[in-house]
Amino acid sequence: MNVLVTGGAGYIGSVCAELLLDEGHKITVYDDLSEGHRSAVDQRARFILGRPEEPGDILKAVETARPEAIVHFAASALVGESMSNPGKYFRNNVANGLKLLEAAVSVGVKKFVFSSTCATYGPPDRIPMTEDLPQRPINPYGESKLMFERMLHWYHELKGLEFVAFRYFNAAGATEKFGEHHRTETHLIPNVLQVALGQAPRCEIFGTDYPTPDGTCIRDYIHVSDLAQAHVLAVAPGKHGFYNLGNGNGYSVREVIRTCEQVSGHKIPTVEKPRRPGDPPRLVASAEKAVRELGWKPRFPKLEDIVATAWAWHEKHPKGYAD
Ligand code: UDP
Predict the structure, then answer these.
(1) Which atom of ligand 1 is closest in space to residue 276's alpha carbon?
(2) Which of 86, 98, 119, 233 is the 20 to 30 A CA-CA neighbour of 76?
(3) Cβ within 8 Å of residue 279, ≥6 positions away
């Protein structure tokens, strides 16, 4: 298929583009490189440097690529930042997303695959979390992604656009070529591995008084290539709906740090800090629906295997991408 990947220079987008190319799809990457890296764009892909704020830029890219499917990763994706700069999230994730959706419909795109998030649920009533739980986000990041989900619903109802929206839990790990490099790193695993690499003296634990066994937040970490594999399954005709993507195993912040120590062989000093605003205490997926309906099967269910791939990438690219 001819597929347009927005955000294909970013962490998850780069790995998804790589896998789609491996499967024989033709890929155009659209990315403004605000978060992404030019060298994270697979060399086999065509690249369009995006200026999503400029009128007509998104439509022009879609008309140039003439894709059968759009896989939409481009977004702002930091819970903490969304609490201090909500406008950035509604502009980028909702307003620019709407331009892409309109362009998709006008060009006759057959399939739209969207990166949503478990942050659309807010603190869940039960664990593991299934797709039918109420969605009550507690930060603008989750709210902006939920708004896009609702738009997708209406474009399906009214314009017949087939879509798959994936609610990711915590993406982690790397392939041989592509890994996680944010210019300002806020994510737990890369932050902890920076300490293991000797690039930071200690890592911070945000909140030790949560109602969890060791007082720190619990998350469900899922390998980036397992996420990418789900997108490959989703572009096939006939697949449609909302799906969680996670392993169903919850790990606390302290457990993640211990696993990083074991995998890297380095002691990781920590410092306890107050809670980070907007963080729910515990998010663990049930991805039964994706397994059942898409035939998805994660290849990296164990945290140490996920961390091992991240560690291998960071050891090989201690400064991340060059550009
Ligand atoms: N976290 C932490 N120290 C860090 C980064 C993150 O304690 O340096 C915590 C954060 O508060 C959250 C969990 O680790 O409870 C996962 O955070 P991350 O930013 O990796 O992903 P999120 O769950 O926000 O998408």
Answers:
(1) 11
(2) 233
(3) 79, 206, 207, 217
